[in-house]
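Friendly challenge for the regulars: who can give me the structure tokens for this chain first? No prize, just bragging rights.
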Amino acid sequence: MASLTIKDKTFGEGIPKICIPITGRTEKEIQDAAGRIAGQPHDVVEWRADYYENITDEKLLLSILKLLKNLLPHSLLLFTFRTKKEGGVHELSEEDYLKICRTAAKSGLIDLLDLELFTGSYYAASPEAQVSGSDASKSAPDILKTSPLKSLISLAHEKGCHVILSNHDFHKTPKQDELLYRLSLMDAMGADMAKLAVMPRCENDVLSLLAVTRKAADSLRCPVITMSMGKLGAVSRISGKLTGSCLTFGTAGEASAPGQLPARILKQILETLSV
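First reply, four minutes later:
Bragging rights claimed.
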């Protein structure tokens, strides 16, 4: 299984690392959330910038990043603007989405940058447009020629920032070959970590995701992050050591996705299961 070390954190070894999201709408709410997180077990803090009411103001964006680095100096900082089509709060044009992510990447203030795999009109995230997981490495070069993420991934790496390529389906769990394809494509596109979150409709959907996670963790060049959302998929958030998912999301207040557990409880479960 692949591993990745960022500062003093190694992803892909031992129990999954814990990430706590910040979903504040204002600077005060963000500051208060950071204060709550400081006393909770965690490795990564995710700023869900799509919640922030002034996110298109570059100066204020950078001000919040500086604030978080000062308040949480020992935490890895993940910048995420989740688009509305993948479960986010604010609707932005593709141009503005890329601009915001580029500003965060260039800032030198973040350790990780989340980029949505299916950014751009060049490619549709639909079953009809997918190929099997085994063909991902063959199709990736063609996609990279037109993907707006190509230069952004390179910029992030130049600035010492690691990239999580991600995909979220809040309606269903696609078939296993499609799940593996998406993770494989992220790897082929240069992701430092590949993230997939899906919604289960039945128990077999959860089991499918867990099986794909193990297969991807054993075969990809980058660590894998997966989750089956909601109460039905809660087991996926605590079974990463078994399946190979290297990061799980907990809360210290408001959740950013259905099924997240409080960080302190999550830590206790992970440590109990690792004994």
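The chain is about 40% helix and 20% strand. Confidence is low (pLDDT under 50) at residues 122-138. Your move, everyone else.
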